[in-house]
Amino acid sequence: MRLRKKILTVIGLFVFVLLLFGIWYAWRAFPIISGYGAKNMASAIYLQHRKPADILKEDLGSFPLSLGTFTVNEEDSSVTGSVWGLAKRKAIYRKGLGCTLINGYSEDDIRHQQFALPASQHPNADSLTWPYGDRVNDSLPPRVNKAMLQKAITNAMQATSEGKPAYTRAVLVVYDGKIVGEQYAPGFDKNTVMLGWSMSKSLTGALIGILVKEGKLNVNAPAPVPEWKGTDKEAITLKELLQQTSGLDFIEDYANPSEVTNMLFKEGDMAAYTAHLPLKDKPGSVFYYSSGNSNILSRIIRQTVGEQQYAAFPYQALFHKIGMYSALLEPDASGTFIGSSYSYATARDFARFGLLYYNKGVWNGEQILPTQWVQQSITPSSADPLKQYGYQFWLNGFSETNPAQREYPDVPSDLFYASGYGGQHVYIIPSKKLVVVRMGLQKIDGNAFLKEVIQAVGG
């Protein structure tokens, strides 16, 4: 009898612990599931003009996102997410700004925010050849093997990830400044804007570079972050934010609730949230990839250019100068662009951005970015032993002489790239005259894909 009572007690305690864990997990995870789904469904509907059923199946169909219920309200252009009726989160669409999660601010306050957006621009004319227009010549350079290139593109479009469709949505290959290959998944085309995820960091880095060029920022000076004055963080430099060596105690983990998921889906002012985190390491001593650093950079841009010019600045200083007329940055509830994660553009416009860096910051004769800035952007920090990161760009570290020690062993060491969650990539390979864009839902074998592309353009 006593043994049975002990067994029941142990079972009861075990069930109680499981229940506590379930409550703890739900408290942390459910708002993130609701927020992620509401935000991404809203942007997919109002920016990409996709059907809710397709979004639920492809983008939100995997566990734990499949736990969520997402309701579209056409009257106020919003999507509300919840998990079993709990942890409701709402994302609203605003023309010219995309979609924003309501966090930390009232919906009324967010809807009444004033943004001095630039005048709308006409898309690139079909009468002009890409990249200055949208006309693409059918003729290929002699070095390009059309059949081999098409095979490489087809393989990427049909690629799987862990036995499931990777949902590649766009592949675009630029050789020597010309589009030589391009393909889209059903429902997507050259006019469909796509989510860049962390490729947004590279855009943010470029905007910082423009302000450095104008003499408004100094990468070696302490970052102008008000919360850090008089603290152990006040010596963190702009360069350390760019190189992901700030030392802030920020966890970049999307599989579990962490600082990055809290920031993106539970916080209204993402830069302020990150700025208040404590130091974990001495600034400049340890490389750790952090979306929080990029959002602090985004707020620094806002503070530097001022409220009147801020909303128009990315478009007037960068996007429209290089013909990225589809590009859009989405703000958080505080009004700061989410420089870590939420940029949208067509595959062709992301390729234009890659071409700007391929051409060392020059566009149609104008030096948009200083050549030195581009070089610094692809130079690793001394705190990065794998030599894999520059100024918000990834590099093909670790070894120039031993391909096996590189991230992409079959690709030249001069490869650098913008990279986003789910396998969004703008690859720039100067030695092969290539800019390659791949957009999709899940990662594919990028090394194998680029190897095939390189072989198709003459090796």
Shape: globular
Q: Assign the structural class, choosing from mainly alpha, mainly beta, alpha/beta, alpha+beta, or little secondary structure.
A: alpha+beta
Helix content range: 25-40%
How many domains make up the 3D coordinates?
2
**What's the CATH class of the largest domain, please?**
Alpha Beta
Average pLDDT across residues? 94
Organism: Flavisolibacter tropicus
Keywords: Membrane, Transmembrane, Transmembrane helix
Domain Beta-lactamase-related: 170-439
Pfam families: Beta-lactamase (PF00144)
Description:
It is built from 14 helices and 17 strands. It has 459 residues and is of the alpha+beta class. It folds into two domains: 2-111, no CATH class; 146-247 and 280-456, 3-Layer(aba) Sandwich (Beta-lactamase).
Please summarize what this structure is.
35% of the residues lie in helices and 16% in strands.
